[in-house]
Amino acid sequence: MTDAHFIYRDAEGHVTVRTVTDAVESGSYLQGYCSESGGYRTFRRDRILEFLSPESDIQARLENQKFLSPVPVQREKRIIVRNDNDALEVCFTGFEDCEKSRFIEIAKENGLFVRTSVSVGLNILCCGSTPGPAKIKKARTQGALILSSQQFLKLIETGEIPEG
Questions:
Q1: 139 lies in a domain?
Q2: Is there a single domain that holds both residue 93 and residue 153?
Q3: Which of 28, 69, 91, 123 is within CB 3.0–4.6 Å of 115 for a Cys-Cys bond?
Q4: What is the CATH number of the domain that holds 146?
Q5: Do 52 and 97 reside in the same domain of the chain?
Q6: Do 93 and 59 fall into the same domain?
Q7: Tell me, what's the pLDDT at 91?
Q8: What is this structure's pTM?
Q9: pLDDT per residue over 126-140, tens digit each?
Q10: Number of domains observed in the structure of the chain
């Protein structure tokens, strides 16, 4: 998949139309550059209401009652499970040195294995304000989750994969 156009219902029940370039499927997630939010995002596939063609009448789709009617959002917790012998691997890119050091310390304190580069087996690429495009591309092709610093901190705090 390269580009994806879809209608998405987020965790709060808000419905939006999304265009994601360089979209890559990673298990039950779709990741790519979201033009609406202006950055790399991770979307849960079970929250994608409908895939659209670029030519489709998006406004007519949004006015469809099934998308606008209130639907109770079921909060399904996505918990990362790891065993004691196999720690999650994380790599940080796009951070100033002092900020990167702080994130590395947080990761180690919480039992994560910190990598300095994207390698096979990497689970998470955490991106700061100036992420390396080569690292992002390589991590995406290997199926790693790409998280912002805020999403990473939420993961550490709750143990849940942050929702897109």
A1: yes
A2: yes
A3: 91
A4: 3.40.50.10190
A5: no
A6: no
A7: 95
A8: 0.58
A9: 999 998 888 888 988
A10: 2
